[in-house]
Amino acid sequence: MPQGPPPKKISYRAKTPTKCPVCKTEHFKEDLLSGGGRLIAGKLTQELRRLYEPSKKWGEIYPLAYTVQVCPKCLYAAYPKDFKGLNEEELKAIKTTIPHREELMKVVFGNIDFNENRNLVLGAASYMLAIDCYHLRSWEMAPTVKKAVSSIRAAWLLGDLHKKFPARPYDKASNFYYVEAARGYARILDIMNGQGEEPIESAAYMLGPDLDHNWGFDGIMYLNAYLTLHHLDEMADTLEQQYKILDTSKRYLSKLYGSGKASKSKPSVIVDMAKDLYDEMGEKLKEMEAQLNPAAASG
C-alpha cells in the first residue's frame, strides 16, 4: 500500500536528553527549524512584536512558543541558559510549588501535556510557568527582566488564543500579563537607576521583546512608556498616583527620543514610534492635570 507524504516538520528534538534538576525526569528539548519558507515576516506592531504570515506549506508558526524550556513532569520552566543553575533554596521552593503550577495550568488550559510538540497553547503556558518559577529565583539570575519579557510574550500568545477561542477567558489572562509586564518594565528601569541589585546586563541577550530583533535597553524605555500609557488605570488607584507614574515613564522615554534625535545610529522605526508615543503621553498628562487642578485649567 503506497505511503503518503511524510509529515511536515517545523521543529526538531535535541538528540541528548535534559535531566530536570527538580524532579530528575528526562526530556528532549524541542526547537524550531529554520529556513524552507517556514517564517514569512509581517509587520512590526507598536508593542515591538513581529507578526508572521501563515504559509500554504507550513501554516501558522509561532516562534515564541519554543523559547522556554519546560519539564513535562513537574512543570519547572526557565530559559535554557538558566534551566540547570538552581541553588538549594531555589530547588526547595520550586519543588514545593509543583501543585500550584499544576493547578494553574488546569484552571487556564485544562489538560495539557508538555511531551507533545509545541503549539500556541503550550507556548502561552510555557511563559506563564516561567514567570511563576522566576518569582522563586535569586537576584543573580536577573529575574525581573525575565519575568517582564515573559509577561509580554504571555500576553501576546494569550491574546492570539482569544482570537481563536473567544468563548474562553484568554482575554482576561492576556490583560493580566500586560499589566504584569508594565509593572515589570518599570521595575527594570528602577533597577537600572540604582533602586535594587540585579545584573540586568547579563540578560541583555534576551531583552527582545520578540525574537527577530533585540531592541535592548531602548526597547525597555519604549515599552515601559507604551504599556504604562495603555494600562495606567490598572497600575494605580488614584489619579495622583497615575499622574506620577505616567510622568516618570514619559521622562524615561524622553531619553530614548532625545538620544535618537542626536544619533543617526538609532533605528528610525523606534525613534519615530517613541516621538508619537511621547506626544500622546504629553496630551494625556495635560488632561490629567486639568482633572487634578480644574481651577487652574479654567483660569
Detail the topology: elements first, then pairings.
Elements: E1 11-13, E2 18-19, E3 26-27, E4 30-32, E5 40-44, E6 50-53, E7 69-70, E8 77-78, H1 88-96, H2 98-109, H3 120-134, H4 143-164, H5 170-192, H6 216-230, H7 232-235, H8 239-262, H9 268-292, H10 294-298
Antiparallel strand pairs: 1-4, 2-3, 5-6, 7-8
Helix pairs in contact: 3-4, 4-5, 5-6, 6-8, 6-9, 8-9
What does this structure look like?
A hairpin with a 5-residue loop joins strand 5 and strand 6 (50-53). The protein starts with 10 loop residues before the first strand and ends with a helix. The model is unreliable at 1-6 (pLDDT under 50). The chain has helices spanning 88-96, 98-109, 120-134, 143-164, 170-192, 216-230, 232-235, 239-262, 268-292, 294-298, and strands spanning 11-13, 18-19, 26-27, 30-32, 40-44, 50-53, 69-70, 77-78. It has 299 residues and is mostly helical. The relative contact order is 0.09. 52% of the residues lie in helices and 8% in strands. It has a two-stranded antiparallel ribbon with strand order 1-4. The chain has a two-stranded antiparallel sheet with strand order 2-3. A two-stranded antiparallel sheet has the order 5-6.
